[in-house]
Design goal:
alpha+beta, Multidrug-efflux Transporter 1 Regulator Bmrr, Chain A, 2 domains, 5 helices, 29% strand
């Protein structure tokens, strides 16, 4: 039976709907690509067109080699960073990522890339693709169901109010987990988990992770 890491880490990936929570996420390995721009722009789509084929082929390679290690592909996650150097620009840098089990190695990833190339599959951001660990650590999170934009902002305000009550400060940018394909899912059924790194009010803030090179 294949492993579903969402269920194995249900507090991290399947929390109650619209309920703000404080959790400590463990360190995971991620297949990741960094870029800039809005989700509707080509760069974001090119990252997905690189990330998901490699993730799926890597899984199939592992399954053929070790069926007991088969697993369900995890949802897309995005670490956002808004460019605040110019007011009103609304330009983002981001790292798109998919969590990988420890049995997925760089050797398997390289084999997956070779397999895709042999099949003439385009990987637009192959040079940006990497496998490495990431740990968001202690964070506040809330599970949103519904459209992006205003309704999501309202859910995010619930989380921020909760964190203030609990005595926490937070990073201004979120780390979101997207459970649906927006092209195939009605807006009212979209599922998004919003996370922000937190620390106790008055304590020194940790530096951002060095791999997030915007």
């Amino acid at each position: 039976m294949k492993k579903d890491f969402k269920k194995l880490y249900n507090e991290i990936y399947l929390p109650p709907k619209f309920k703000p929570m404080i959790v400590t996420a463990p360190s995971f390995n991620y297949l990741m690509v960094s870029g800039e721009g809005h989700p509707e722009e080509p760069s974001f789509q090119m990252a997905a067109q690189t990330l998901f084929p490699v993730a799926y082929v890597s899984k199939f390679i592992l399954k053929a080699k070790s069926p007991k290690d088969d697993f369900t592909i995890m949802p897309m996650e995005v670490k956002w960073k808004l460019d605040r150097s110019h007011h009103g620009t609304k330009r983002y840098s981001w790292t798109m990522m998919i969590m990988q089990p420890k049995c997925i190695s760089k050797i398997i990833i390289s084999k997956a890339i070779r397999t895709l190339k042999q099949k003439k599959k385009s990987l637009p951001y192959e040079e940006r693709l990497r496998l490495q660990p990431f740990n968001i650590g202690k964070c506040g999170q809330i599970f949103h169901i519904g459209p992006y934009g205003g309704p999501m902002d309202n859910t995010f305000e619930i989380l921020k109010s909760y964190l203030i009550e609990q005595g926490y400060e937070w990073e201004p940018d979120s780390h979101d987990v997207y459970y649906n394909d927006i092209r195939r899912t009605p807006p009212e059924k979209l599922k998004t988990l919003m996370r922000i790194r937190i620390w106790t009010q008055g304590k020194e803030r940790k530096l951002e992770d060095p791999f997030l090179t915007w």
